[in-house]
Amino acid sequence: MDTNNINVDIDKVEIGDKFSTETKLLESLGYPKASGNSRLSFLKDAQRYIDYNKTGKISRGKETNEIIITDKYIEPKETQDGRTSVVIQYLKPLILSIDNKSIGNKNLFLEELQLVDVKKWQRFKSNNRVEFYKYYLLNDFKGKVKTSLKQLYKENDWFYFAYEHMLITVLEDGKWSYEIADKTKSEYIDTMRLNIKERLVARHKLKYSMEKDKTWKQLSYRYTTTLYKMINEECKEAFGVDRCVDVITIEKSQDVNLENEHLRDCTKELRKYYKVKMNEWVNKNKDESESSKELIQFHNELWT
Known about the structure:
Layout: E1 18-19, H1 22-29, H2 36-46, E2 50-54, E3 58-59, E4 62-63, E5 67-72, H3 87-96, E6 101-103, H4 105-112, H5 118-121, H6 128-155, E7 159-170, E8 176-180, H7 183-207, H8 216-239, E9 243-252, H9 260-285, H10 290-302
Helix pairs in contact: 1-2, 3-6, 3-9, 6-10, 7-8, 9-10
């Protein structure tokens, strides 16, 4: 059935909305009632506008067909490649509200935008599952920030950003000294990081020679902390500094006045998006182990 003449009303659904069945979702979006191949065609078309997953809700001992909206897209595409999440619309004003500074993605998430409570975030440090959870969440946030920065740069000739390395030294009086690495030092750090990743992957292959070959992407959950520890050690030897931190430098040549109420709404929608997304992640990765129970406890506390 031709979907070109269907007036899909994307405003009728929001991230976090639940529907008892896919058919109920299609009706809410404005698709006509259908079955068989026509229904499948409508579901495929609907995924140009939204993403959804089963909630895992159990009724009478069986999993139901209940689904939850996990994302919406600004512009529907003929294919799913290259779609931009509607979440970017909430993130861009928040970035524009930031004063000129250099800041890391983690500090941006926790301190600047305060998307979750820092004290709650710092709990369960010894639990690997919780650390995996944090890595997954921050990695998604990092990708959304990158897309937002690129769009802001294209839209405004007074907006500038750059990804840089910040070198930090603890002085004798306890104060910290900050320095943005120049081109020579940045190239050295980038090469060093690549070499360390390759060493960690090679070490893993030797230790687990019977396993399938691993890549850094597969190891990153477990060894990201080790990577940065090794980078800091080598930076101390090479430059005499205590830490090397990845930062985003944001510069605006004109003031941007945004209403506080609008910014609060943007923060609220971002929290809602990540609460839904991470609830989905937890449901996929939970089991009956004690570490999994701590993960669920951490997740529930983090978003209350």
